UniProtKB/TrEMBL annotation:
Name of the molecule in the record: N-acetylmuramoyl-L-alanine amidase
MF terms (GO), sorted A to Z: N-acetylmuramoyl-L-alanine amidase activity
Gene3D superfamilies assigned: 2.60.40.3500, Zn-dependent exopeptidases
Organism: Sinorhizobium terangae
InterPro entries named among the record's database cross-references: AMIN_dom, MurNAc-LAA_cat, N-acetylmuramoyl_amidase_3
Keywords: Hydrolase, Signal
Keyword Signal (UniProt): yes
A Gene Ontology term for the protein's cellular component: outer membrane-bounded periplasmic space
């Protein structure tokens, strides 16, 4: 029997039938194209719910299309990792409020076309049942996870049997490492803190997530620095994606950075505290506030479900030794120059140069600072952090500080 396409092309077919055939084939082609485009788009998680107690807990997440998924476990602390294709999470925050076996639930992008749900457990747990079911209307799907409490021996068996190390599939970035255009340029890595599954702090008034605040400022700072003669600047992340702390260091070193500036905007319980702070690395924290902040920032990888052993060996070796003394001295010099540039121009916290053991500052050969722009827990700071005019002003002050630092470093042979 001739194909439909051949039948439509026969001379015996009347012109009006040929027109109908043309319309039909155009419809098929359009439908196929739309299907392909939809398949390339991220999944949409549009609803979720959780129920259970300290013995058993069920989690249900609804998607617009059938999701592929995999489940893994991480210890110290116990976490259940659910890896997904790239997913847009349109969930109400209260829909996955932790309860039952879980005391924290986070979800978001991991970069490289993947997303993740991280279920932090109160103790050893096992997902005893996991399946995807179509909804009755056939237009959406439910991912159902049933978890139950188990003993440590059983959990240890799960860790051994899964043959999973949290490797780079879930944490890699799909961006190639760009080559610095001018080999003689002074190169600056600007690191927008947090991203993807790791949202960072949440604004008190606007509920803005820190990851968006840091990226907006980092983009402004890079644009400002690029206007400096002989300077090249780049972002460690240029989108809402997760990068592990070691990856941020790696990207800076691979691109030959002369400076590394990590941008943050944290929250504090004391809502009256406000102003910018500049941190450098030290094996001993300068004060309780610095120690507390470093502890929280160093949890970024844990929040995303990345076990320490998944870090590349090159970076893991770096983490063993504290930053070389010479590099640390340059970092302190940069921090002091930044504070000097800020004084009298923008608000600073008391004792604005502080230090603690920030893992993101541990490149052995790149002078590094962590800039706390202000606190999202303070309504006045939050307002400034969201103000493009304020961001432009602070970026200009930072660029001036970098210029003076560079002049001093060159004069001293650095």
């Amino acid at each position: 029997m001739p194909s439909a396409k051949r039948l439509c092309s026969l001379r015996s077919v009347t012109s009006w039938r040929r027109s109908l055939c043309a319309i039909a084939f155009a419809f098929v082609a359009t439908t196929a194209s739309a299907t392909a485009v939809r398949a390339a788009e991220p999944l949409l998680a549009f609803a979720a719910r959780i129920a259970g107690d300290d013995a058993r807990t069920r989690i249900v997440v609804e998607f617009d299309r059938k999701p592929e998924f995999s489940i893994h476990y991480v210890a110290n602390p116990v976490r259940v990792i659910v890896d997904l294709p790239e997913t847009s999470f349109g969930l109400k925050p209260e829909s996955l409020e932790p309860r039952g076996l879980f005391d924290a639930i986070r979800y978001g992008g991991m970069g490289g076309g993947t997303s993740r749900v991280v279920l932090s457990a109160k103790g050893p747990v096992e997902v005893s049942h996991a399946e995807v079911k179509p909804q009755e209307d056939g237009k959406s799907f439910r991912l159902i996870l049933d978890a139950e409490k188990i003993d440590k021996a059983r959990f240890d068996e799960l860790l051994v049997d899964q043959q999973w190390t949290g490797t780079m599939r879930a944490v890699k970035t799909d961006r190639p490492v760009a080559v610095v255009k001018d080999p003689g340029a002074f190169v600056i890595a600007v690191d927008a803190g947090h991203g993807g599954i790791d949202t960072g702090a949440i604004g008190t008034v606007t509920k803005t997530e820190e990851k968006h605040v840091t990226l907006a400022f980092a983009e402004e700072l890079v644009a400002t620095l690029k206007r400096e003669a002989g300077v090249e600047a780049f972002l460690t992340r240029d989108r809402d994606e997760f990068l592990s702390l070691p990856q941020r260091v790696q990207i800076a070193r691979q691109k030959g950075a002369n400076l590394f500036i990590s941008v943050h905007a944290d929250t504090l319980k004391q809502k009256d505290i406000r102003g910018a702070t500049v941190y450098t690395i030290s094996d001993k924290a300068s004060d309780h506030l610095a120690a507390s902040l470093a502890e929280r920032e160093n949890l970024s990888d844990e929040i995303a479900g990345v076990p320490l052993q998944s870090e590349p060996a090159e970076v893991a070796d770096i983490l063993i030794d504290l930053t070389r003394r010479e590099t640390q001295a340059f970092s302190v010099n940069l921090a002091r120059t930044v504070v000097s540039s800020f004084e009298g121009q923008i608000g600073l916290i008391n004792n604005p140069h502080r230090h603690a053991g920030f893992r993101v500052l541990q490149a052995p050969d790149v002078p590094s600072i962590l800039l706390e722009l202000g606190f999202l827990s303070n309504k006045d700071d939050e307002k400034q952090l969201l103000d493009p005019v304020w961001r432009k002003k602070v970026s200009g002050l930072l660029a001036a500080a970098v210029r003076r630092y560079r002049e001093t470093a060159v004069a001293n042979g650095g």
